[in-house]
Amino acid sequence: LAQAAVRRAFEAGEVLFLEGDSPAGMWLVEAGEGKGFKLSGDGGEHILRMPGPGGSFNEISGPDGGPNAARAAAFSDIRVGGDSHCGRGRGGPAQRRGPLAAIGPW
Questions:
Q1: pTM to 2 decimals?
Q2: CA distances from 7 to 30, 39, 52, 79, 84 (A)
Q3: CB-based contacts of 10: which residues, under 8 Å, 6+ apart?
Q4: CA 96 to CA 92: how far, in whole Å?
């Protein structure tokens, strides 16, 4: 999967995807550190996880086609890989293509 993944780089503070948007695919962290988080009603951040190299984002929403369950941003400069839809949003499970589609029938 990693060899076939589309790679993207983000600078620290840059948003990878937003909660509630169409799924942005599953992201595999190659370098740097990201953060998955939700915003509270007063705008505070509740950090859910901080994946580094070998970690991932959007393991549930990416494969199942539901909206992104949380937000993700680059905590430091980060390089990630994903399928050909990585970072562009996408439709339902019938539209899954690329290397991550090989994981299983979603």
A1: 0.71
A2: 9, 27, 15, 7, 9
A3: 16, 73, 74, 77, 78, 80
A4: 7
